Amino acid sequence: MNKKIVGIILAILAAVFYAINTPFSKMLLNNISPTMLASFLYLGAGLGISIIYLFLPKKKKKEEKKLTKNDFIYVILMVVLDIAAPIFLMVGLNYSNASSVSLLNNFEIVATNLIAFIIFKEKISPKMQLAIVLITIYGFILSIGDFSNFEFNIGSLFALLAGLCWGFENNCTKKISDKSTYQIVIIKGLFSGIGSMIIAFIIEESLPKIQFIIYALLLGSVAYGLSIFVYIRAQKEIGAAKTSSFYAIAPFIGTFLSLIILNENIHYTYFIALAIMIIATFFIILDTLLKHHKHIHKHVITHTHDGYTHTHVIEHSHFHWHNENDEIHTHKHLKNIHHQHDV
Q1: 295-to-130, 298, 317, 319, 327 alpha-carbon distances in Å
Q2: What are the residues facing 276 on neighbouring strands?
Q3: Beta-bridge partner residues of 315
Q4: Parallel, antiparallel, or unpaired for β 329-342 and 308-322?
Q5: Longest alpha-carbon distance in the chain
Q6: d(C-alpha 182, C-alpha 191), whole Å
Q7: Which of 245, 188, 224, 222 shows the shortest CA–CA distance to 90?
Q8: 94, 115, 203, 319 - which has most CB atoms within 10 Å?
Q9: Whose CA is closest to 248, among 277, 219, 216?
Q10: Could you tell me if 104 and 166 are in contact, meaning their C-beta atoms sit under 8 angstroms apart?
């Protein structure tokens, strides 16, 4: 299968896995404090992938490239940002409804793309730039919710801070995405979870009942563990910017689940934003699967008649749009003809 298509499928799977996080975390917040919940979600991710790794065949384990000392700075940044982001998200959920926070998660996509372009110098085509603009627009629409009230509440602020942290974290993870995905997720999950746990105890949050700890660990193993795992694999194929852009469907799925599970109302702006997201996704898919390039051919034709020598220089400009398997191949021709007459 085309690697780009595999990358798209993995990015969408990552979004689906993560989408279940918001409504179920909102339910767990009734019994677990925000920072403590963030801790157990990441611990669930680390433990879940660790269990999968234990049963991985030895041959597959040897194929995984190990992290090195040169990756240390990105690992540290990844863990620190992963400690901060879910704490901000859980605090945001405490002050806002689950559907609003799900939709505000779109800022992570915008932040990831801009950071990839500005700081990490990842190339972004005009089609991707247009898609980012559209994502920004629908994120703005969803953030406001009711157009009669142009104010952000405190929950919105924390949700945006979470998105910013994850935007930086996604780009740090991209720098080491060619290394063992199992190793990355296990380190990310366990160390981020322990860090959040320490902060939870410092601010005097108490441990929840064992049954809610189990629920949080199970949720984390899927919503964080599996989601992060396939997200990193997608980054290997299509890069940080495009992976995060396909990931934009997660908030819409999360909002829909909030409607079903928590019986929350969906504002009409959801459907406006959904239409914009579909258009943005179209441009992202187009940019991911199709490549284009231009080249020029020159043909020189010389002939003599009636004692005159004529030289014709014909230029053909070819524009090609194609995928990696040349299943789609179109041309656009531009012709310029120059005449030179010699007596």
Answers
A1: 25, 10, 6, 7, 20
A2: none
A3: 298, 336
A4: antiparallel
A5: 102
A6: 14
A7: 224
A8: 115
A9: 277
A10: no
DSSP codes, 147-211: TT-----HHHHHHHHHHHHHHHHHHHHHHTTTS-HHHHHHHHHHHHHHHHHHHHHHTTPPP--HH
Q: What is the DSSP letter of 67?
A: P
What are the pLDDT tens digits along the chain (343 aa)? 678 888 888 988 998 898 888 889 989 999 999 899 999 999 999 999 999 999 999 888 888 889 999 999 999 999 999 889 888 888 888 887 766 676 666 677 778 878 888 888 777 778 777 877 887 776 666 655 544 444 456 787 888 889 899 889 988 988 898 899 999 999 999 999 999 999 999 989 999 999 999 999 999 999 999 998 998 898 888 877 778 777 777 777 877 787 788 776 767 777 787 788 778 877 877 777 765 444 455 555 665 666 656 665 555 544 444 444 444 344 444 444 444 555 4
User: Which two tokens mark 79?
Assistant: 């863990």
Cα–Cα dist 112/156, whole Å:
18
- CA 195, CA 19: separation in Å to the nearest integer? 24
Contact 41, 216 (CB under 8 A): yes
CA dist 88 and 81 (Å) reads 11
Looking at the DSSP assignment, which residues form a beta bridge with residue 256?
A: none
Identify which of 320, 286, 295 has the alpha carbon closest to the alpha carbon of residue 131.
Answer: 286
Length, in residues, of the chain: 343
Q: Which amino acid is at 305?
A: H
Yes or no: say if 117 and 170 are a contact pair by the CB < 8 Å rule.
no
CA 26/CA 34 separation, integer angstroms: 10
